[in-house]
TrEMBL record, chain B:
One of its GO terms (molecular function) is flavin adenine dinucleotide binding. Residues 3-183 form the Electron transfer flavoprotein alpha/beta-subunit N-terminal domain. SMART domains: ETF (SM00893). The keyword Transport applies. InterPro entries: DHS-like_NAD/FAD-binding_dom (IPR029035), ETF_a/b_N (IPR014730), ETF_a/FixB (IPR001308), ETF_alpha_N (IPR033947), ETF_asu_C (IPR014731), ETF_asu_C_CS (IPR018206), Rossmann-like_a/b/a_fold (IPR014729). CDD domains: ETF_alpha. The keyword ATP-binding does not apply. GO terms for biological process: fatty acid beta-oxidation using acyl-CoA dehydrogenase. It comes from Haloprofundus marisrubri. This is Electron transfer flavoprotein subunit alpha. Belongs to the ETF alpha-subunit/FixB family. It comes from the Archaea.
Amino acid sequence: MMKILVTVKEVAEVEDDFEIDGLGIDEAYLEYDLNEWDDYAVEEAVQIAEAGDDVEVVSVTIGPERSEETIRMALAKGADRAIRVWDDAFESVDLLDVAAKTRLLAAVVEKEDPDLVLTGVQAADDGFGATGVSVADEVGFEWAAVVNELDLDADGGVANVRRELEGGVEELTEVDLPAVLTIQTGINEPRYASLRGIRQAQRKEIAPMSLDDLGFDASALDSPIALTGMSEPESESDATLFEGDAEETAAQLAEVLREKGVGAQ
Amino acid sequence: MTVLAIADHRRGSLRDVSYELVSAGRQLADATGGDLHVAVISGNVEEFGEKLNLTGVDTVHTVENGEEFNHDVYAGAVEALYDEVDPTVLLMPNSVNGLDYAPAVANALDLPLVSDAVDFSYDGGLTAIREMYGSKVETTIEVDAERVAVTIRGGEWPAVADTGDAEISAFDYSPDGDLGSRVLGFEEVAGGDVDITDADVLVSVGRGIEEEENLELVEELADALGATLSSSRPIVDAGWLPPNRQVGQSGKVVTPDIYLAVGISGAVQHVAGMKGADTIIAINTDPNAPIFDIADYGIVGDLFEVVPELIEQFE
Ligand SMILES: Cc1cc2nc3c(=O)[nH]c(=O)nc-3n(C[C@H](O)[C@H](O)[C@H](O)COP(=O)(O)OP(=O)(O)OC[C@H]3O[C@@H](n4cnc5c(N)ncnc54)[C@H](O)[C@@H]3O)c2cc1C
């Protein structure tokens, strides 16, 4: 029996034109979806489960009730059950920092006692890129960040991974289990949930967990890190923008390209 | 206040961000008239130590231990150095290796962590600027703690190049017990038939293309312009183009005469691979897309309308 815990996050995607309202983006311009990196982490876990026997995949999220829709996607793709950590106390928090997320997720890891934890490299919204490795340290697991290939040797007690470094170089590393791996996009091809999967997901359990259930009070969310401002970056653009319809703009661009010798041969 | 910055290196050379960490660290140290310590762990520390003897650095700590990065060694060594140097700010790079040890170190030392900072100041506490939502907004983060760990984004601070008169001192550290992770080797990926770094003109396609079938359109454009086709990461992740076509931090760094970005937003990791192009042109429906910040020419428009017209211009 092997257990894989996958952390997933519902992230907000921002429309092209948006407005900032105080310390956040106006809700009217946000659309919620499963974090891109987590989609790959879920797929990786499900593929391991499908290839082995007796592998349980549990997905965990920290998020409001709305995020049940997102976590159902993980269930529809093949996770066996889910946990959703939330509490009224979260409503008044502008930014959940890495340390707070670490406390909460580490408590879940300790309850579930998995052999492997998969997270995304980063969340597309706040982009800290730190939670997985921080949790690993907190629970005393080994870890590897930015993994784009995973070969699990559960009997040998190791995971052989490739870490994607900069500049087209990969590092081949052997990591002792239990471990936390942060999963990079491209490691696999995430499936679309099938109709059958979506139906089955309706019957799967999403267990709610409050701060109290995890053995905390509201102070677990306290953080010395505060979000105190949000603004649209000043455009540094000094680009020449061509005006007109498609034909006109294309003609102007073509002229610039020809001047630079493109298409001359 | 004392600042401790950890250098980044790989396969025999210091990475650019190491020199940027020195100016970032000096900026903070200056705010309070303090010292800047820089540490380099593993590799040829003697050579690295000399290279890191740069203007503004007070002490370079060299930690001899194996050739290459190993996060267990780094985490242990940085924690030991932290105890020794007692810094107010611990600065690390937001590189792929930084991602692999900085969060563990911050957690072990019970330090609040601000990652991927693009600017900061210090006035009794740290105030940092970092982006969210893929560069769509900038946020201000204030840290109400005496000590803090920060990782910095590459390319945001100037690199320090001038030799200084730092004290170089060897720091003794060896991990206790067996390491839980072992680096077995490296592999260069993304070889193959086409070398996009050789091209004078690149037509580069991003997620705006929506479907694999639509790639034909940009292939046709590349043909019409006598250009080579490259792409952003999602196109390669989806398997629509091979890895040797990917431009960016984890792909190729290209410096063509002309880079035509079609349906690419201009995320930092993409820009890291193409900002050196002579002329950058963007076609994108979103006037706020960060790609326009670095573009020389642009069309705010739908690629499915503009590209066919552009092809026609060259037929
Ligand atoms: C560790 C790490 C390494 C990475 N390495 C790389 C790397 O090497 N290279 C890389 O590219 N990325 C890399 N990334 C990913 C990067 O963060 C971005 O996710 C990626 O670059 C986005 O690609 P994109 O611009 O094609 O897609 P998006 O960001 O989704 O942008 C699509 C753009 O298309 C525009 N668009 C949509 N429809 C149309 C239309 N009809 N006409 C015109 N425009 C349209 C949209 O306005 C948008 O700006 C890395 C990320 C991480 C975490």
